[in-house]
From TrEMBL:
Full protein name: Choline transporter-like protein
Organism: Magallana gigas
Primary localization class, coarse: membrane
Keywords: Glycoprotein, Membrane, Transmembrane, Transmembrane helix
Membrane-crossing residue ranges in chain numbering: 49-70, 252-273, 280-302, 330-353, 374-402, 475-501, 522-544, 622-643, 659-682
Length: 732
């Protein structure tokens, strides 16, 4: 029988051979051949509809919360100065008084940076102009006529109190400094001189005779004053640095943009050449690792044999701990440790050599896939900007919500519509104004004025708190939804690439747009489902962080231990769920099944090939880490040499800046973001091709009816080949 007859016989046997019986394993039954599957299924139905409807309902709820925040909130209350009566300076009753004056500025500053969080524990009033002199009220010599800065509801001239009692009750300021307005706050002039002229704070306090006393008339010594006012100097210094940084960014913005574009081009070139250098990078690193520990083992053991008959030792001292160690024993210990690591590395290399070769081949194939569909590199840009929009919307709503309570008080305090002619409040009008939001409970006329105010405040605070929590949860859900959308879109495109038998001929037109359409048309519910799971875990982690912060300083080690354990467990759970979700999205993009089914199938497929999964995951992580570092290092080094004027032919373009490090840092951070976006596409390509490769191995056997879709390189590594039909003249 000739070669041609033998080949025809093998072909007929492959065509008539019955399907092998597939035994179910511990992790499910391996996939079987499906003659209708030729890549991502086009004829599919909507999945996880209930979760899609739930997602839309929650979005409507977020719109309602945002409407409430934008209608009743006023961010000016968080930025513009507000006096102790919660009135905005320069508005309403305080019209014509745009500046804020603190009664005891030193007491404020003694709180440190916490003053910007908790507020200043001293009366604050709105004034028409900041003080133009330094003045300390002395109760024995000064009269009520010298009290220039008092609370709005206190008239010092008509009061029967003594000056001493007025100061004790903090009805008027006990001292004030010559000040200048800064962000509408009165700041002592000598602090601004310290900032602008570089003068010493203690010297300026002494020269300006800027004394101060507390509410009881006790003078602050110079050390207390310096400590209390230094926090404002820190703030002013930070403001100066911020202005200079903004100035540098404005000056060099186009150069920073060029640097980021160059980083983008370099990242693109690096991805393309990965198909040729991936294998070299992996094998060179492995050989370098083995060589390093081989040398370490040999050298340390050699030193041990040279010194084993001596008594050489050395002393180590850490604080109160002192140790004396023998040099020969130290070298022996290092030699044994290095030898164990070397042995483990060699055994891993021997047993996993073929799997490492598969990982390298898949990485090269991922580079080819990205090179074939270059528009995939643009995909991460849209999810990235969508995430920025989501986070920006959350932050905006959160700021408006935070100001809702103060805005309500501001509206009542600054509007004569809610007051009687004598200045007291008309609570019936207040109830009418608030009942539209708080419902019928606010119309309870049996409540007294004080009870109603307390009730109103509690209801409003509760609503704002719950709204903030809901807004935060929706931010997590939407951000994870955007991430899932990007992953599934890329997975559908790369699955189309893998299941194309002749590449790139059989790749469908517009694979990215087709995949994006399938996501929106059929799988919004599945995307929302996966994102919801991650969002819930993230909210639990945030709650644990809050509990952990509350337990700080508490003498309860058992509770702290359990909280730390829970934080660790939920961190691991989030990482696992993100890994499982990504693989579930790949199978959803390819087969169109619901989230739970796809997650189960992905998990079973991974567990049936767990060793390959671990190897490909770690090798890919290593290569992507090296690639990101190369791109970031290139961008950082290039920007450093340019902005430092070390590139001679570009020296004429080097700008004059306050801080040369500012554009360098921005280019470095921007290049890292760009590299992360680009290589996230690469990582998704490798993960998708790998899962398709595992399916290919289980579904097909290389016969003419069930040929492998994997590349020739992968078939060669696995020792597999496709049987060629007698009528097919091409080898594949």
């Amino acid at each position: 029988m000739g070669k041609k007859e033998k080949r025809d016989q093998r072909y007929r046997e492959s065509m008539t051979e019955s399907e092998p019986v597939v035994k179910e394993t511990e992790y499910g039954k391996p996939l079987t051949y499906d003659k209708n599957f030729k890549g991502p299924i086009k004829d599919r139905s909507c999945t996880d509809i209930i979760c899609c409807l739930l997602f839309l309902i929650f979005i409507v709820g977020l719109v309602v919360v945002a409407f409430f925040a934008f209608k009743y909130g006023d961010p000016r209350l968080l930025v513009y100065p507000v006096n102790s009566n919660n009135e905005i300076c320069g508005y309403g009753n305080q019209l014509g008084k745009p500046y804020l004056l603190f009664f005891d500025l030193v007491a404020c500053g003694r709180m440190g940076m916490g003053v910007f969080v908790t507020g200043c524990p001293t009366p604050q009033i709105c004034v028409a102009a900041c003080p133009t002199e330094n003045k300390v009220i002395v109760s024995l010599t000064d009269t009520v006529n010298d009290l220039k800065y008092c609370k709005d509801d206190f008239d010092a001239a008509s009061s029967s109190k003594t000056v001493e009692n007025i100061l004790k009750d903090e009805d008027c300021a006990a001292y004030w400094f010559k000040s200048q307005p800064l962000i509408n706050r009165c700041v002592p002039s000598f602090l601004i001189d310290v900032l602008e002229k570089g003068k010493n704070l203690a010297t300026e306090i002494s020269n300006s005779n800027a004394n101060a006393t507390d509410a009881n008339g006790n003078p602050y010594n110079s050390a207390v004053m310096e400590g209390g006012l230094s926090v404002y100097g820190t703030f002013l210094k930070a403001k100066e640095y911020g202005e200079k940084i903004i100035e540098d960014v404005v000056t060099a913005w186009w150069m920073i943009l060029i640097g980021l574009i160059l980083a983008m081009i370099f990242a693109l070139i690096w991805i393309i050449i990965m198909r040729w250098i991936a294998g070299f990078m992996v094998w060179f690193t492995i050989l370098a690792f083995i060589s390093l520990f081989g040398f370490s083992t040999g050298w340390t053991l050699y030193q041990y044999y040279q010194l084993k008959d001596t008594d050489q030792s050395f002393h180590i001292q850490f604080s109160v701990i002192q140790m004396t160690m023998s040099k020969p024993k130290l070298f022996l210990a290092f030699g044994i440790i290095s030898g164990i690591i070397l042995l483990i590395a060699v055994l891993i290399l021997l047993f996993l050599c073929s799997r490492i070769r598969i990982a390298v081949s898949l990485i090269k194939e991922g580079s080819r896939a990205v090179g074939t569909m270059m528009f995939t590199l643009i995909c991460p840009i849209f999810p990235f900007f969508l995430q920025i929009v989501v986070i920006g919307f959350w932050l905006t709503v959160a700021v408006f919500l935070a100001s809702t309570g103060r805005n309500q008080s501001f509206e009542f305090n600054n509007s004569s519509n809610y007051k009687y002619p004598n200045g007291t409040y008309d609570y019936d009008k207040i109830k009418g104004a608030t009942s539209q939001f708080f419902g019928q409970a606010c119309d309870n006329t049996s409540l007294s004025a004080s009870e109603f105010c307390s009730f109103l405040k509690n209801q409003e605070e509760n609503f704002v708190l719950y709204s903030q929590i809901f807004n935060l949860f929706m931010m997590f859900w939407l951000v994870n939804f955007v991430v899932a959308l990007g992953q599934m879109t890329l997975a559908g495109a790369f699955a189309s690439y893998y299941w194309a038998f002749e590449k790139p001929k059989d790749i469908p037109a517009f694979p990215i747009l087709s995949s994006l359409w399938r996501c929106f048309r059929y799988h919004l519910g599945s995307l929302a489902f996966g994102a919801l799971i991650i969002a819930i875990v993230q909210m639990i982690r945030l709650l644990l962080e809050y509990v952990d912060a509350k337990l700080k300083g508490k003498e309860n080690p058992v509770a702290k231990f359990f909280v730390k354990c829970l934080k660790c467990c939920f961190w691991c759970l989030e990482k696992f769920l993100k890994f499982l979700n990504k693989n579930a999205y790949i199978l959803i993009a390819a087969h169109g099944k619901n989230f739970c089914t796809s997650a189960k199938n992905a998990f079973m497929l991974i567990m049936r090939n767990i060793v390959r999964v671990v190897v490909i995951d770690k090798v890919t992580d290593f290569l992507l880490l090296i690639s990101k570092l190369v791109v970031v290092a290139f961008a950082a080094a290039s920007s450093y040499f340019f902005f430092d004027g070390r590139i001679e032919f570009l020296a004429s373009f080097t700008p004059s800046l306050n801080f040369y490090v500012v554009p360098i840092v921005l280019v470095t951070l921007g290049s890292y973001v760009i590299a992360s976006c680009f290589f996230s596409v690469y990582e998704m390509a490798v993960d998708t091709l790998f899962l398709c490769f595992l399916e290919d191995l289980e579904r097909n056997d290389g016969s003419a009816e069930k040929p492998y879709f994997m590349s020739k390189d992968l078939r060669k590594i696995l020792g597999k080949k496709n049987v060629i039909s007698p009528s097919d003249k091409k080898e594949f």
